[in-house]
Structures are given as structure tokens and as C-alpha cells.
Fold this protein.
Amino acid sequence: MHAFRYAALAVIVALVGGCSSDEAFVDRREMDRSIKKQRLPGYDGSVTVCYDSDTPRAERDRLAAEACEVYGLKALLRTEAKWQCRLATPHQANYSCYDPDMRMANGGLVDPFSNSQVKAWRLERQESRSGSAGE
């Protein structure tokens, strides 16, 4: 019985030790669970960064920017949520990957991973070109 207790204690210590890194990181849990083939962060236009209270905003922004940069895109902070990640890095910052050159006429950003938004953006650009060419 004592051997079981020691083994259980060793497992708990290992698990807590594995989750105790307090460095901010890009969270890949959803990607690992939801797809068979490993993809890079930002493959769907969003990046989640887990961080603790001592992590500067610049560090979170840098991690997200690196993940979006793989696709030639920039990172934009959308939301932050407390107590949504792991024990040592409990907070979550959600970013969108975007192309600063892809903006609608009203200034709104286009999600480069949304076929309908890209199609609407292209259509709007064509209409503005044909409208200015006819003047």
C-alpha cells in the first residue's frame, strides 16, 4: 500500500512540475486535439498566448507576432481572459492574424482566413477600380 502512495505522489509531483513553467507561450492544445495533422499556430487566423501576471504585454505581442509572421501576417489583440490557461500561466490573450493591406472601404480589417470576407474585399476593390476608371 505504501508503494502505491509513493507512486501516486511521484506522479502528482511530475504533473505539477510539468505545468509549473511560468514563461508565456503560444497555446497549441486545441490544435493537438482537433486535427490529425499538426499545424502551426495561426493556421485558422487566431493565436492564443498563455501568460502570468508578470508577463509584459510586449512579450505576449511578440509571441503572437511570431506565430502570425509564418503566414506573412501581423497580430492584433482581440480579447484577454483571466484564469483560462494553465496553473502557472493562468491568463489568456487571443490574437487575430491579419494583413494590414486588406481593409474594407469602411476601414474594417478582413480576415484572410475567411473566404467570404476575402471575396467581399476583392469585389469591393474591383468596384472601386472600375468606378474610378469611369470618371
